[in-house]
Design brief:
The chain has 346 residues and is α/β, with parallel strands linked by helices. The chain contains eleven helices and nine strands.
Length: 346
């Protein structure tokens, strides 16, 4: 039984992709529809990312989208995956998230990252004179925690709403730096293995070995974000995945473009070095039928011992995208039942 997978929660990271020939309005409508469907499927949380100056991504304002998604659902936790804290004043973040948590109590998560979520020129436009923000990340997280604390009620500067509210903070990362920080602060850790797979295992080891229990978390809690494209057959999933491959190639070549329809073959579309770069970035991608992703996820969960799997699915067709999350939920439920079935068999 040592190799049986642990039972994991399952969640969604929505990059809010803009489809070729569509608009951000269409993207947001699809996001709400997806959130409503995954809520029925038993998903734990639905996170929205922060990206700027990208023709392919509509989530430049996750706080606004969190309110939109939370308002259209009833039980799903909704949050940021993440808010790029150096882009914002901690007090403003505390007030915004405090407003959301007041409107939707017990349902709001605050995932925080230190990257700009954009190119350097755009970061300059966002941050102005605050370009040293990434170095201030640990201090600004602690500032946020102070603003959320009831003990801050006697301070000269207060977050209202926000003060005294239970808004869980998660540290996001794609490198080992974030692992040390999440461990030192005793906060849950979400790793972006959907595009930065290389440092996942070392980062998890660092986080667990250095974790210091905090008032909010007694033991390490790990979320791994992965790409999932599931369908009835491996061939169908492979076909759908060509949209993701085109999207990632546009990112690595510095020319982000709207999410393209799937194609029968990527061969004529690869630029020199593109296929190798994309395959490296998509190392933790689970593409196939339920049986295929079940087997591959079993190995992944056993290897990483993650507490929660967060799936992002850049699929062009909305119906196929929703169905992919349905297949994933069925696969993870089957895995959760597997140890009991094995024990009963013996």
């Amino acid at each position: 039984m040592a190799n049986s997978p642990k039972q994991v929660a399952f969640s969604v990271l929505d990059l809010a992709p803009i489809l070729a020939g569509a608009t951000p309005t269409d993207t947001f409508r699809h996001s709400l529809h997806l959130a409503q469907q995954v809520e029925k499927l038993g998903y734990t949380r639905y996170w929205l990312s922060e990206h700027h100056n990208m023709a392919s991504v509509a989530s430049s304002s996750p706080v606004v989208l969190i309110g939109y998604i939370a308002g259209g659902t009833t039980t799903l936790r909704v949050g940021s995956g993440g808010i790029m804290l150096p882009n914002h004043a901690p007090l403003v973040v505390a007030e915004q998230m405090g407003t959301l948590a007041s409107l939707y109590p017990g349902r709001i998560d605050l995932g925080l990252g230190r990257a700009p979520g954009s190119d350097q020129r755009t970061a300059q436009a966002i941050r102005g004179s605050r370009m040293g923000g990434a170095q201030d990340f640990p201090r600004e997280i602690q500032q946020l925690q102070t603003y959320f604390s009831a003990a801050n009620s006697t301070a000269a500067v207060r977050a209202i709403p926000g003060e005294g509210l239970d808004i869980p903070i998660y540290i996001l990362g794609s490198s080992t730096d974030s692992a040390y920080l999440a461990a030192a602060l005793g906060l849950p850790y979400a790793f972006a293995s959907h595009f930065a797979p290389g440092q996942l295992l070392p980062a998890l080891e660092i986080y667990r070995q250095n974790f210091r229990p905090s008032a909010t978390l007694a033991q390490p809690y790990v979320i791994a974000c992965v790409n999932v494209i599931a369908a009835d057959t491996d061939a169908r999933a492979a076909y759908l995945s060509t949209s993701l491959q085109q999207f990632m190639q546009s990112v690595v070549t510095g020319r982000p473009a709207p999410l393209q329809p799937p194609v029968e073959s990527m061969r004529p579309l690869w630029v020199p070095g593109g296929q190798q770069a994309v395959q490296q970035m998509l190392a933790y991608s689970f593409i196939g039928s339920q049986a295929t992703i079940e087997q591959e996820l079993q190995e992944f969960i056993a290897q990483t011992q993650v507490d929660e799997l967060m799936a992002t699915s850049n699929i062009f067709d909305q119906e196929a995208r929703v169905y992919s999350y349905q297949v994933l939920a069925e696969a993870l439920r089957a895995l959760a039942q597997q140890p009991a079935a094995e024990m009963a068999a013996h």
